[in-house]
């Protein structure tokens, strides 16, 4: 809060006390109609409806009258024939039958258009318009005597112009000699159109994403309204204090006696002074509390990043992914019900979220955010890292970030939901079936993962090193389309982080080794020097999992063979690869292809990074292997 805000508030109160009361002040005064407001059953209209200026939603302002109330949409008046919780039955005000004896029907002189409003035409209404049948050519000879406008003349020949959003409706014209008898035809086109309008136009609305409705949900116990003095009519939450002031002002303005005005003026001055003092004290308390909270959170975030909080850092990268509220994600995950947990990682748990529109997403909730905790810096840095990196990525084989939430109750990330589990579950977990993944499918999964790495290493400037390429971070879709996820450990290879540059194109970044045991590049672990080839090593271990169906780490093996890379490299060097091939891949005809993938994995896990292929070379080799299988027809097996 600005330090001069209390002084400005007092000056504003002084101007209210010593200036005449304006009859047009922007207060929402809820009036109670003396008569009913058809078709509403109660004289007090619920939000978003209102019959008082400045109250409710500006697009739902109702003029109560008998026998039909009216509403103005895009400056056009409509009569309300019926109302439900999410729809109106409307008709243009001039379309109801008139007592006038004129033989000229009162047709609309412009199209009915609800674009740029919260309303949309019901499909049933468009269906009724499309079902009109005419017995002859839609040109009425007597229409010229009625002084019709050019639009009304076109409407007689093209009735589908009546409603803009039904413009794709094709009206059916049938001659009098037609054998079609299941739909009656209309000979009087103008009165048929009027009959259509008098039956009513059904319009719906959806306020779940409307800014007025969203703001109103937090306006309690105040009254929801809008500023009538501005063209944009921004939302206003009228508090109980402003309503009390408005009522007192109206009472003072309506009192004829000068003495009574003086008495009420003294009472008003005393009341407003007391209210002003209370508000100032409350604001000072809230401001101090907010400053203390921000200071604590800011210290934690600066400890994590050595710089400013997450929102500022995102703006520095020209990124602004969508922001969700904590309550939105809590509702979508049933308050993070353990039944909805679909994964668990080093930094947090992943839950299945179902939103009100039926869409699904995966929500990662990082371990409880505690500014005082020693691990808060690491957790928050992982959170920031995923937002910055994933917000820039667009590739079919990478998990997409839909948004985030920063809240004292938790740090949350919202991703694509991939419904078919992880590669690890399909190879040696809960989703492993008999006969299991075919060899062709395994090669295709390897190729899709390699394409994702090629994009990270060669398609981005600066390149991105994932640092945690594992079978548990490769998500399998229902169509076996895979996506690489979990970028909490990823790094951008920027010059600011570089400690040297190798003879080849790789930029070498000096950082502490992080990753999953069994997949971690041993050279990176020894030297603290990170390059794209560290991802290639991890991918080589994944290839070995695809060939053998074994886990990356298995303590039941001999100690020097705990890790799959050490175990398989030894078997390949001894010419014993066939002993460790997954038994479900028992076709002798694919052994050549399996040996080719094993040879590629052997090169990927080479001890010296310069002996490893880069991601682009890996993609080319896997394309060659897959193409050979396709030629032999193995994609059918």
From TrEMBL:
Keywords: ATP-binding, Membrane, Nucleotide-binding, Signal, Transmembrane, Transmembrane helix. It comes from the Eukaryota. It holds the Pfam family Pkinase. ATP binds at residue 364. Residues 1-23 form the signal peptide. One of its GO terms (molecular function) is protein kinase activity. InterPro entries: Kinase-like_dom_sf, Prot_kinase_dom, Protein_kinase_ATP_BS, Tyr_kinase_AS. The keyword Signal applies. PROSITE patterns: PROTEIN_KINASE_ATP, PROTEIN_KINASE_DOM, PROTEIN_KINASE_TYR. The chain crosses the membrane at residues 265-292. Residues 336-637 form the Protein kinase domain. This is Protein kinase domain-containing protein.
